[in-house]
Design goal:
Ribosomal_N-acetyltransferase; binds coenzyme A; 21% helix; 209 residues; 39% strand; transferase; protein N-terminal-serine acetyltransferase activity; alpha+beta
Amino acid sequence: MPGTGRRGGPPAASVSAVEGGYPPVPVPGIVSETDGTSVRLRPVAEPDLAMFRRFCTEPGLVGLDWGGFRDPGAPVRRFAADGWLGEDDGRLVVEAGTDATAAGFVSYRAGRYAPSATYWEIGIALLPQWRGRGVGWRAQALLCDYLFAHTPVQRIQAGTHPENIPEQRALEKAGFRLEGVIRACEFRAGRWRDGHLYSRLRDDPSPWE
Ligand SMILES: CC(C)(COP(=O)(O)OP(=O)(O)OC[C@H]1O[C@@H](n2cnc3c(N)ncnc32)[C@H](O)[C@@H]1OP(=O)(O)O)[C@@H](O)C(=O)NCCC(=O)NCCS
């Protein structure tokens, strides 16, 4: 059982020091400590911007979502504009391990099926050395806790690639269910490709329980 000791309710708060900052910057976050694995989500801080620049310019670092080089100045501008905590989209840094290393990020973007039916679409990218260590499913489960606690949405969705078995497994472990195949939904690596759409509803069972 992957429980955190938390059973429902708002995410637990914690404070960590952002690496590379001097003096260390105390940043509040939400945390999961389960089965010896520590994962925390916190707002982006200035020392994280080097990691975000890497995702813009290192081919494939972001995984199958790599779509070519992106403006490496964009992370600095976005951080200056709103700390990457916008009303309609945002990012949180994923920290992992006992020394709270920045392991990657999670993202969320607002969508709408009808005027009163808004939802969040989430995403994630971990640095390669943090993949396959139980961080990804926990980070996405924590992001759901965070979004369900602070916004009234009923639905959180996530898309992934048919060949992305790690993300399909991670989403299922984070409480998502497969809804179906979205045909030709992305142009990637030279051709249009199908995607798999997953969702988790507010009332779906929590993966922590
Ligand atoms: C996809 C990603 C977020 C998954 O997170 P992760 O930390 O690697 O996955 P976890 O360690 O939490 O594992 C979750 C499940 O997937 C399985 N899994 C992980 N890596 C796997 C692999 N390479 N092959 C098969 N299964 C794998 C795990 O075994 C676990 O299932 P289990 O408990 O039933 O064994 C991460 O690998 C990543 O950032 N990849 C690059 C970016 C990306 O693909 N983002 C998603 C775009 S849609």
